[in-house]
Every structure is written in structure tokens, then in C-alpha cells.
Design a protein that fits this description.
mainly alpha; 67% helix
């Protein structure tokens, strides 16, 4: 269950091309510095949060009304 998640995390902090399992050979956070520093990931995260909250705000009342009708 957790293996794909752990492999993703290990790959994201590994500086080398080939990821060693279960822990990277050269751990680094440079990829995350690049992601948040040079790219505008904050805007994408904000947009995703707005869309997901709006979806929940619409889906809960509709699903509640549909469930009450049953």
C-alpha cells in the first residue's frame, strides 16, 4: 500500500538519476527549491484549492438533497 508513495518521495529527494530503494543515495531538497522558487507552483496550488473547495461546496448540498429524497 505505501510502497508507491515511498518510491515517489524517495525519487523526489534523490539527486542521482537512479533511485536507490528504500532511501536515496544523495538526498537533496534542490528539486523542491526549484519548484517553489523558480516556478510559479503557488498559483497552481491556489487554483486547485479553490476548485476543490467549490466542488465540495456544491456537491455536499446536492448529495444531501438526493439522499434525503431516497
Amino acid at each position: 500500500f505505501a510502497a508507491p508513495f515511498l518510491l515517489t518521495v524517495a525519487s523526489s529527494i534523490d539527486a542521482s538519476r537512479v533511485t536507490a530503494w528504500p532511501w536515496p543515495n544523495e538526498p537533496t531538497l534542490e528539486h523542491y527549491r526549484n519548484l517553489f522558487g523558480q516556478r510559479d507552483i503557488g498559483n497552481a496550488l491556489r487554483n486547485s484549492t479553490i476548485v476543490s473547495l467549490a466542488t465540495v461546496a456544491v456537491a455536499i448540498p446536492i448529495a444531501s438533497l438526493a439522499g434525503y429524497g431516497l
